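Input:
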Amino acid sequence: MRITPKAELEHRCARLQGKMAEAGIDAVIILQNADLFYFTGTIQSGCLYLPVEGQPLYLVRRDAGRARMESGLKEVIPFGSPKDVPRIVAEFGYPEPKNIAMELDVVPVGFFERYKKVFPQALFSDATPLIRQVRMIKSHYEIHAMKDAADQVDKVYRRALEVIREGITDIELAAELEYVARRNGHLGHIRMRVFNGEMIFGHTISGTDTAVPAYTDTPLGGVGPSPSFGQGASFKPIARNEPIIVDFAGSIDGYLVDQTRVFAIGGLSERLVKGYEDMVKVQELMMAIAPSRPTWGALYESCRQLAVEMGYEDSFMGAKGAQVSFIGHGVGVEIDEYPFIARGFDTMSLEPGMAFAFEPKVVFPGEGAIGIEDTFYLADDGTLKQLTYSDQRLAII
Amino acid sequence: MRITPKAELEHRCARLQGKMAEAGIDAVIILQNADLFYFTGTIQSGCLYLPVEGQPLYLVRRDAGRARMESGLKEVIPFGSPKDVPRIVAEFGYPEPKNIAMELDVVPVGFFERYKKVFPQALFSDATPLIRQVRMIKSHYEIHAMKDAADQVDKVYRRALEVIREGITDIELAAELEYVARRNGHLGHIRMRVFNGEMIFGHTISGTDTAVPAYTDTPLGGVGPSPSFGQGASFKPIARNEPIIVDFAGSIDGYLVDQTRVFAIGGLSERLVKGYEDMVKVQELMMAIAPSRPTWGALYESCRQLAVEMGYEDSFMGAKGAQVSFIGHGVGVEIDEYPFIARGFDTMSLEPGMAFAFEPKVVFPGEGAIGIEDTFYLADDGTLKQLTYSDQRLAII
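Output:
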């Protein structure tokens, strides 16, 4: 079990303060769990008040004792409600903030209004773009946690090789794999930032179910156990000669990696086998280009272009009409971080420290989907390193 | 697998429309997954536009085909963005809404602003209290799904009896129980409405860990596998003569029940055994009072009063300084629904159709916690029925 080192937290807060100074923001008030974990090292009920200069103030309703034990931040202060914040800020000698940023993509209206009320003179803006920019550059410490998550997901992959057999249902297979992950420290919870983003361990889906579109912002969705959770594994029994997709997020100490491998009993159609080989080629192209630090959008376009040239215009990243406009997504504390390897993200480039999952996939309605996914990061020396490492070959059982 | 019947959906929408008319609201725009599931029968990316009179319009970005298959609502309309809503509303001949309600406790500021922009003349208010009031009255259909969830959680209880042994860790035990639940259709996801509410299957915790306060709004929290998820099972090995708490939420077809049972290898201290018996007495008091339809707050106060009289003022519902101000919470699609059996809820009374978990617990820091939890509902004939039914005795192994 890791306790985030004090130096990590100080460095993270200082980097956000640097971006706040550039943007003319006096204070950021952080409320959301993933951001609290990143900047404080723990998640207790409360908020982090980060002034543009000076020590961050971690205001904790519950539980202040645990916050003191688990957080390396110097100032952990018990508090009752947003009403207390201006007083505490003044007590620490910080000026009254005129420009406050909050996480407007995730904080509900009702919570936001309470903070607006206690700082009636302030202007409010969205802190999330700045927070995302800080969080997108991983430290060695973070990469180390993600390597442990990659070990976990490889155990899941190996277990899939053992338990896949004709007649087992997708949800039974999912249960087996989740069991292995949990015994190896998986939190049992995947953080997804986007509103309404619901994700469990991943998607374990087989056959034509792999080609069913879902509400999730993912190339493959699955049917799920019921319309109340219409994604991932259903009660469908696994048959011979169909793709079995294990898209699984490893999770250790708050850090994620994402990996997809495809299994089949017997074998697969020529079209699916070729689709798999072609998606590996898209991955290889990405690996060749990434070290040149293209913009996220340019990397997306180059890889999509190859898929189109290989004949997948209508099947790449989803069935026609349900295609998503990304091939990769940053991972770390959340499954949907910067960088977005996606259409239109033309202003930001890949940089050392960025970690992302890359998942070229094709979908043939009525037949099935196929593809591959691994998690990568750009190292300090500019080379692209692969974090997930399970055998990349189609797993024919 | 259940598909919510059309008549259920129509009745639910009509009930919300009745409350809208009383409150002077022209339209409710529903965005959040749990509410979408309740009012549409599925969860696709999009929104439900419910006018105070007329058919609800289910506007779906992704996937409209699935929405048509899974939802019994008549009007499923593909749409691209909030900008399209006024045009679609006009096309259906509905008047331009002047008073719009949205789920302000859960919708993030950024999403809300987009809807505000497309209805610049409208006044906006919070739809959640009305939605909660509709959802708090369960139909026979819903109670039936919850009975299935109670069967699932009983299987979990029985499995705990089989696998608890000295030396197994809390997280290993949790993995075993989650495995059983998943194989029996558990969605793997517990919906919690409150911002930052994170919940997996429940809390499997033992020994002094049961008395550790957490950020969760629960009487017991647990240490968790890391500060990144500081609740529930940790890597602590289970020992003899300590409480092993299995607080588990069953989940079938989108419906939840909540049950807590306590196990021990060998036995427990006199204080803990007495604590358990006394918490059963608090439960019995609740069962005796509930049919008289007290206010939620009055029911809370009566039960808390008994706990205080039995000497638990400083240990009831949390250790001193970390006590929560509720003993029960509504359950259904979410784990934190109306009714709240909690301090201060003095205006609303128990009514037939209300379902809730009731969880009297005591916490002794440094020793452990103990208590019981079951899920109940008030039937049409005014009697209180118990949904969860695992053996209520302390399970001494």
